[in-house]
Every structure is written in C-alpha cells, then in structure tokens.
TrEMBL record:
InterPro entries: 6PGD_dom2 (IPR013328), 6PGDH_NADP-bd (IPR006115), HIBADH-related (IPR015815), HIBADH-related_NP60_sf (IPR051265), NAD(P)-bd_dom_sf (IPR036291), RedAm-like_C (IPR048666). Residues 168-293 form the NADPH-dependent reductive aminase-like C-terminal domain. GO terms for molecular function: DNA binding; NADP binding; nucleosome binding; oxidoreductase activity. PANTHER family: CYTOKINE-LIKE NUCLEAR FACTOR N-PAC, OXIDOREDUCTASE GLYR1-RELATED. Keywords: Oxidoreductase. This is NAD(P)-dependent oxidoreductase. Residues 10-166 form the 6-phosphogluconate dehydrogenase NADP-binding domain. Belongs to the HIBADH-related family. The keyword Oxidoreductase applies. It comes from Nonomuraea diastatica.
Amino acid sequence: MTSHAEQSAVTVLGLGPMGRALAGAFLEAGLRTTVWNRTPGKEQDLVERGAISARSPEEAVGASGATVVCVLNYDAVNAIVRRDVVADTLHGRTLVNLTADTPDRARDTASWAAEHGIGYLDGAIMTPTTTIGTPAGVFLHSGPEKLYLEHRPMLDTLGGTHTHLGEDVGRAAAYDIALLDIFWTAMAGYAHALAVARAEGITARELAPFAKGIGTILPPIFDEVAKDVDDGRFSDDINPITSAVSSMAHIVHLSEAHGIEAGVMRAAEGLARRAIGRGLGTDGFHRITDLLNPL
Ligand code: NDP
C-alpha cells in the first residue's frame, strides 16, 4: 500500500506530444509530477509549470509511487525500464504503461514486471492529446483490478472516461488495435476519396460535409453488424455483397482511370469477390468477418 505522499506524486517517462499532455494534466490537478525524456529539452515548459525534471529514468521512477510511461512503442519502453537499476527502483511501485503496442507485448511486459515485484497496469489512450485533462479523453485499462482501483484517483486527474477491461493485461492493447484498425482504414478511405474527388475537380472542403454524412450512417450499422456477427447471422436482403462489390468496382475503375492507385479498395473488393465465389453473394458485407476468422 502506497503512502498518501506517494499517491499524490506521479512520474511520467516520455515527453512526446502525449507524454507532455499527460504530465500537463497531472500538474494541472496538483500532483507532484516528475518527468524524464530520452532527449533533454522537452521538459522545459513543464518545469516552468512546476514539474520536477529527473536526470535519469531510475531517479524519475524513484520519485513517485506510480510511474506512467508513454513512448513510441514497447521497444522504447524496454530501452527505458528494462534495466536492472530501473527495475530495482521500481520494485514495490507501480508502472502504468500507456504506450500503444500489441497484446502479446503487454503480456510479456507484465511477466517481466511480476518477476521484478513491480505492480503493472497496461492501458491505451483512444483520443488525441488535446482531449487529455478534458471530459473528452478515452482511456482503456487492463491488468489487476485491485491495482487499477488503487491508482484510479491518479488516473482520474487525466479527465475523460476510464474503463477497466479485465485482468488479462493484453486486453486494452487488443481493443486499441481493433479500434485503430477501424480508424486507419477509415482514414485511408478518406485520404483516397479526397484524391479521387480532386481528380474530378471537387475540393476537399466541398466533399467534407458529405463525408461527415457517411460518418453518421455508420454508428447504427456498427450496432446491427455487431449483433449479427456475434449471433452468426450474415444474410442481408437490402445490401447484399453482390451489390456492394459493384459499387467497389466503380471506385477502382474511376481511380485507375485517373492514374490513382486503388490498392485499399482492390483489397476490399477482393474479399467481397471471395465471398461471392463461395456462394455467399446474398450475405451482407459483414460475412467478411467470418471469412477472415470463422466462428
Ligand atoms: P511518439 O509515439 O512519437 O513517442 C514519442 C516519445 O517516444 C518521445 O518521448 C521519444 O523520446 C520516445 N522514444 C521513442 N523511441 C525511444 C527509444 N528508443 N528510447 C526512449 N524513448 C524513445 O509520440 P506520442 O507522445 O504522441 O505518443 C506516445 C504514445 O501515445 C504512442 O504509443 C502513441 O501511439 C500513443 N498515442 C498518441 C496519441 C497522439 O495523439 N499523439 C493518441 C493516442 C495514443 P525522444 O523525445 O527522445 O525521441
């Protein structure tokens, strides 16, 4: 059990855009905040706002009961914390890893932490830096619930919503990757659509209001598809794959007629055609989920 002084103190390792936002929110909430970054200089504005700048990761983690690490990926996390001198100092303290990476790497880091007597929570931040310290932040957490509840007051100072997804420490990373899958394929689609629109003399600003309309169509579809996928129901009279694949082919044709590569849409069309080839053309596009990973 950490003392009151340790609970009102936090260390942040990594001062990229996200680490700086996290440290800023902790300072704003009045926590004694110690910071460290591999490349010196990024701590300056935080120090002006009251942060303590540590000279090394071991000095940083020794200053607080809990350390939040938020860097590029787990290679960077390992380079900072998986050294004897840092692990020894972290012994009996808590490491909250808000760096994005894969579930397996989260589980591996948790095993390392357990071997060294370090409390370990893994998490993912689902919203941009500007949401940190505001109600709009979305944080996912996984790992021992008791440890999560112990550090919840510290996490709450970051604002937003915090969801504990379970004791499997890889679960936050698994949600993160599934959600980023949606985000990046959507962004790839939007970037591509703007290129096609530009080739037809339509500016991004002209298309944007209608693009947002596409965004608003999706939430109810997400709910319906989620139910159907979990229940193993794939039929769709209103928008069968045979119809979907035809509109995908139009996108590929127009893109390539303008000399714009259409690899992302070709991949989607290829999946749809695979379903049709298996006699599943009357199903909805979500049949793809079952083709990729059968129930
Ligand atoms: P980056 O992902 O670019 O991470 C930058 C930080 O990583 C810097 O502190 C950098 O140190 C450090 N770093 C990189 N390589 C190493 C290394 N080998 N050893 C030590 N430190 C290293 O920027 P962000 O701060 O934006 O992101 C941090 C995490 O937050 C990422 O996992 C990201 O996916 C996640 N995230 C970010 C969001 C955002 O909007 N920015 C939104 C949601 C999640 P140095 O300054 O020395 O290079």
